[in-house]
Amino acid sequence: MMPKRKLTLSVREDLIDEVKRMVLSEGKTLSDLVEEYLEFLAFETWVAKLAEDLGLGELEPIFDQEITSTRPRGLDATKIVRDLRDERASVHYE
Does residue 2 lie within any of the structural domains? Predict the structure, then answer.
């Protein structure tokens, strides 16, 4: 485990109280939440730099809910897969 260092933050008291209640109900601490967010920011920056180095441009979406919200509507994935399987099965190998 990496050593930890104490950090002093200035945050509105009402916000701290509200978020503390939320994270405590999940069995976490405010420190856990801040650390997870900082890890997310570091990872997001690393991924963006890697994508740039590989010439992939800006990668999106990032969050699961963004994936489902950006999917094309009207496609029937089950039918498409079934059609592809049927097509493959109908090909005769000589």
Answer: no
Residue-level pLDDT at 64? 66
Q: What is the mean pLDDT of each run of 10 residues along the chain (94 residues)?
A: 91 94 92 92 87 80 65 73 82 59
Number of domains within the chain: 1
Does residue 54 fall inside a structural domain?
yes
CA distance 56 to 47: 11
Q: Show the domain range for 48.
A: 13-90
